[in-house]
Structure to design on (302 residues):
């Protein structure tokens, strides 16, 4: 079954009533998956102050809607990057968590994370889900629909000697990679595949924040990353088989830029008949904090 990502423009549609509506309905968000590293036990963080991360959800439908944001523990099958289910969702608070949105209206919630001062959490990585969903009946809607945002955070393996808290910096997740998934067919070993020319796809980077950002792009194998291998695919044999037209790109506020991708397997028939998964990892860094998002490229070799 094709993997369904969480990011943005398309949310999972959930029918909770039998009535039918002719109006267009939908939600989008600027953050589908975010990774924040090197936090400290015993500290409370505003992700807005720390990493310029507020959750923004837009009503892309034609009618008004009531929106609720809930913090949930992820299902085991949803875990990524070798993370664990967050021990207690009370670590997370959203302010506010309920909105009434007009068509095209936006909901913006501050995410706060409080990590208990317990050495048992040192060096571990946790994941939680924010389920943004409409309420049936709100704004005249008969259907409820929603989307999920996955947030993963790691805790520093050592407690600092001094009160060396993670300070706000240049790290930010106010950017989006699209599409979240790229599927390529009929890759021939030894032949360079230009994803734009031969596959009709480009990677777009959009700065959804208010400040200029520099994003670093890196091809990665699933092994050693924070991602999970999609069913039916093997890990990329070598991340260097996927290259970018630019590895680092600076994007102004509200600007979208494109990056071309190139795939080339060595001229060895051992790759033929296999389907491989590559990770495209976009990161920004500020001090001890690194944030990032993933896109995935799937290559079927003939």
């Amino acid at each position: 079954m094709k993997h369904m990502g969480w990011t943005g423009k398309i949310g999972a549609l959930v029918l909770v009533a039998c009535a039918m509506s002719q109006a267009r309905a939908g939600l989008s968000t600027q953050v589908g998956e975010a990774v924040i590293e090197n936090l400290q036990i015993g500290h409370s963080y505003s992700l807005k102050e720390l990493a310029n991360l507020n959750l923004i959800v837009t009503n892309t439908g034609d009618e008004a809607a009531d929106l609720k944001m809930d913090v949930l523990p992820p299902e085991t099958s949803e875990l990524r990057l070798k993370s664990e289910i967050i021990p207690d969702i009370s670590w997370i608070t959203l302010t506010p968590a309920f909105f009434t949105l007009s068509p095209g209206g936006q909901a913006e919630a501050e995410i706060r994370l409080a990590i208990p001062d317990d050495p048992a959490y040192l060096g571990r990585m946790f994941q939680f889900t924010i389920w943004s969903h409409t309420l049936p009946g709100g704004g005249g809607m008969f259907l409820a629909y929603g989307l999920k945002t996955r947030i993963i955070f790691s805790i520093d393996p050592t407690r600092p000697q001094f009160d060396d808290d993670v300070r706000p910096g240049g790290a930010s997740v106010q950017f989006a990679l699209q599409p979240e998934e790229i599927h390529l067919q009929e890759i021939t070993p030894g032949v360079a595949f230009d994803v734009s020319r031969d596959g009709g796809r480009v990677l777009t980077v959009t700065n959804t924040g208010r400040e200029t950002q520099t994003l670093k792009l890196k091809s990665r194998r699933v092994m050693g990353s924070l991602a999970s291998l999609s069913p039916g695919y093997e890990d990329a044999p070598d991340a260097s088989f996927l290259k970018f037209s630019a590895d680092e790109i600076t994007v102004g506020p509200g600007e979208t830029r494109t990056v071309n991708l190139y795939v080339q397997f060595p001229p060895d028939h051992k790759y033929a008949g296999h389907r491989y998964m590559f990770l495209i990892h976009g990161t920004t860094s500020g001090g001890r904090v690194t944030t990032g998002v993933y896109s995935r490229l799937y290559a079927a070799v003939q």
